[in-house]
Amino acid sequence: MTSLPRHNGILLHPTSLPGPHGSGDLGPAAYHFVDWLVGAGQSLWQVLPLGSVGPGNSPYISPSAFAGNELLIDLQQLRETGWLRAADLASVPAFPEGRVNYAEVQRFRIAHLRHAAERFFGGKKAAQRPAFEAFCADARAWLDDYALFMALDIAHGGDDRMWQDWPAPLAHRQPAALRAAQDTHATEINFWKFCQWRFHEQWAALKRYANSRHIEIVGDLPIFVAAHSADVWANPELFDLDEQGHPRVVAGVPPDYFSATGQRWGNPLYRWSAHAAQGYRWWVERMRQTMKLCDVVRIDHFRGFESFWEIPAAAATAIDGVWRPGPGEAVFAAMRRELSDAHGRLRIIAEDLGIITPEVNALRQAIGLPGMRILQFAFDGDAKNPYLPHNYDANTVVYTGTHDNDTTRGWWEALGHPEQDHVRAYLGVGDETGEEMHWHLIRLACSSVAALCVVPMQDVLGLDSTHRMNEPGVSEGSWEWRFTWKQVAAEHARRLAELMRLYGRRRG
């Protein structure tokens, strides 16, 4: 990553795009956003994990580490292919412009996807059937288990039932039970395969368009997977589970900046010895899939590869956890053998936030990955604070804030007067009201030596705390933010483009 030119980008998940069907998707607004990035002199579009949302609508708790989010499928494109009719989309609920009402969006979009799948499988015109079958064959390693998992979850789930609560022959994947289920649920299985086909086709087209305009996609790969997922159900030997298949211990982080009791994420932890015995094959294939979708991959919670916080599954908070050793460099060596670029690099960003030890830094440096720096963490009064730009090295990705942070405007308004004075002093500005503080921090990030700079769209627009994407530890109301094009002025792109020119981050 250190040999890359100085690049700049915007953090915006596709669900936050405008659009007529309740949430952003892979339709015209996504292409328009790519064009806006070009006009703003940007080189990168960073997104959150592209999988289906899980509990609390989080994209970090997906039912599959390989599948895409079916709610991102552009329904208008399905109408253009004839699988939906104009009348199907003539009556749309009164979705809010600025938020995603996931319950309503799920009902509306899934119903229309089912109509489209019925017409595709029932239609006499079979011109696209070979493309569908080719996709299914290419993705068989993960798609078959995922589609069956989703079908069984509908048949046996509900009321917060986990896959361990399904009938035992299915929960424990007895071959005869799986064969019978494949026959019984063939229509439902095909529906979920259809959704994945359409997501991957639409995403690939959008990525080609972005790349043709010299915009690279920065993806996001969570280190852990959901307990209720096709991944754990299909590969129980790779996870630390009890005899019934329930997690014995779960993931999280100890008390930190975000929470006094830490964060109990609840994901099952890996049985790293089992991964090592298989040559880390599952991890290689997971990264391969993500690299198909993205040009650069940010690995969330990178420090978990050096050591991870192990919490007893019965514990209510993360306080009583202990550190356990991770796999270290071995998993990345396995990836490098098959997935490195022409220069022998893994195009990966290490999310190295939180409690970072010298051992974590040593691992990141040994692999050659850039780390992350967050400006909102920088101003504690200590000139040695690693998040202050004068302490960066070039192999760094700087953010004003991430999806887990408040917006820069919200962060500024929550600071006390002494802290605000310290920020002004460091920046060398006399902005007493702080009206321009988001632009001051954007300029600071762009002017730094960090090779890559990423700014949340909320900060470009100068939005307050009501527009933040996620608040860690709060289970309701996150991941819902959307913007409208009415909020975007020509001045936003002009100011960004000027900063790109001044600080050598211009595209091309």
TrEMBL record:
EC number(s) per entry: 2.4.1.25
Record's keyword terms, sorted: Carbohydrate metabolism, Glycosyltransferase, Transferase
One GO term (biological process): carbohydrate metabolic process
Gene Ontology MF terms in the entry: 4-alpha-glucanotransferase activity
Catalytic reaction(s) noted: Transfers a segment of a (1->4)-alpha-D-glucan to a new position in an acceptor, which may be glucose or a (1->4)-alpha-D-glucan
Membership in a protein family: Belongs to the disproportionating enzyme family.
The protein's name in its UniProt record: 4-alpha-glucanotransferase
Source organism of this protein record: Candidatus Accumulibacter affinis
